[in-house]
Structures are given as C-alpha cells and as structure tokens.
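Most newcomers find our protein records easier to grasp once they have seen one. A record pairs a protein's sequence with a compact description of its fold. An example says more than a description, so a record of this kind follows:
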Amino acid sequence: MGDFWQAATTFPTVLFTAALVVVAGFWLLVLVGAADTDSFDADVDTDVLSLGGVPVAVSASLLIVLSWFFSVTGSVLLARAGWPAALVHLLGAALLCASFLGSWRLTRALVRPLAKLFPDEPGPSPHDFVGSICTIRTVRVDADFGQAEVAARDGSTAVVQVRQNDGGPPALGSTGLLYAYDDAGAFFWVTPFDEALDPRG
C-alpha cells in the first residue's frame, strides 16, 4: 500500500492523480444533477484526437483514468527496480508520455463502440414549426411586429416572431397558422386560422 500511495502522489503520476480528482468531482456533480455529461461539448472538439462520438466528459474521463492507471503501475515497477534516482526520474518523464499515448490509443478504441450509446440528435429547426397552429400573444401583428406562442413536438412551448402582410390583423389570443419561415428576418409568416377547420378536431 505504501508503494501505491508513493507512486500516486509523486511525479509523474501526481499529475494524473490531480486530474482524476477533478474527474471524480465532476461525476459527483452529474450524479446529484448539478452538471450534465455534455457540459463541455460546445467548448472542446475531440474529433481532432479521434475521440468524437461520445460526450467530451466521457472521453476525457476515460483518457485520464487510463493514463493514471498506466502511470501508477509503471511508477510502482520503477520504484521496485532499485535503479539510481536520476535514471528513475528520467524514466518517469518517459512514463508520463507513454502513459498518455497508451491511454489515448485505448480510449480511441473504446469510444467507437460507446458512440452507439450516444446517437447524434439534430437540434430543433425553426422550419419544424412551419404548418403549426399558434396563439397570437401581441395586440397587433403586421409586417413589422408580432409574436405568437407555438407548441413543439415534445410538448414544450416557444414564443416566436410572426409577421403578416395582408388580411385582417389577428386579435390577441386568436389562432393563427405558421405557413412559412423567413431565414433572413428570423420570423414566421402567419395567417388567421379557424380552429373549426383543424382536421385534428
């Protein structure tokens, strides 16, 4: 046990030990619901390391855990070899690089099957709302101003910008139909809609 503790708290393993403490803290936050597994996906691109396909937190955690394991194992073996201290320190620097490289190769192999557990889900598109029924939430809707509330497929609601060029202005609380989306202006074209005509009843 003494050799293990010594290896975990001295160079080179101490670098991975510190990272391992951070990883453990992060997963504790995930466990209590204070963080998400995809918290860092927008900030880090793991594809450059061939570690894409899973959340950054997963691939980074695997990389750190494996690096720590390889490093602590190598450090224990070096400590028991009985070689001169200068040589042990030199080999420790080589062990740092070898541990990281070996864990990277193993992590790259592991994330491939794990990627099947994290299928890509395209984000919602405004065009998904075209053809939806909405409720007008402003006192006027014209070519310059207007808002409406529309329900998404998952049951959540969103307030969107709407415009109308012709016809009678929909009243506040009335029903409208989103029939087109303007990408340049980031708004929907809306027209009054009679709920009696809704085939969904």
The longest helix spans residues 85-114. The helical segments are 2-8, 13-31, 56-81, 85-114. Strands lie at 133-136, 147-151, 157-163, 175-182, 187-192.
